[in-house]
Design the sequence.
């Protein structure tokens, strides 16, 4: 998956979490599982599919998981970190006239190109 696709997926997760949190605060929804559907979708899209021979050893499986999944996990973590830093910088700059949703929307548009 390309970096821009990962970033857009992360923004979608954060946007859904923000909306679900708003609904919980307003009493329109209950639960503490923000963005669970989007996270599952992002992981399904992001994580490489693994297949193993019937005689694969635990070491074979461990090495394949490390080799195949580590880059995807690092890419996703970096995208969440970038989104967090973008939101934190706007907060620290005192951007009271810009909402979190606006910042996430701008971030998504930036990675649409």
Sequence:
């Amino acid at each position: 998956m390309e970096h821009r696709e990962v970033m857009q997926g992360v923004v979608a997760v954060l946007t859904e979490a923000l909306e679900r949190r708003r609904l919980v605060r307003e009493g329109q929804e209950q639960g503490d599982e923000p963005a669970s559907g989007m996270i599952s979708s992002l992981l399904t899209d992001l994580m490489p599919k693994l297949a193993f021979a019937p005689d694969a050893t635990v070491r074979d499986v461990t090495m394949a998981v490390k080799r195949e999944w580590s880059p995807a996990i690092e890419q996703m973590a970096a995208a969440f970190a970038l989104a967090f830093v973008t939101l934190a910088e706007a907060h620290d700059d005192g951007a009271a006239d810009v909402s979190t949703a606006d910042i996430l929307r701008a971030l998504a548009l930036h990675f649409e190109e």
User: Anything to note?
Assistant: The chain has a mean pLDDT of 89. The helical segments are 3-25, 36-46, 58-92, 100-110. The CA atoms of residues 51 and 61 lie 9 Å apart.
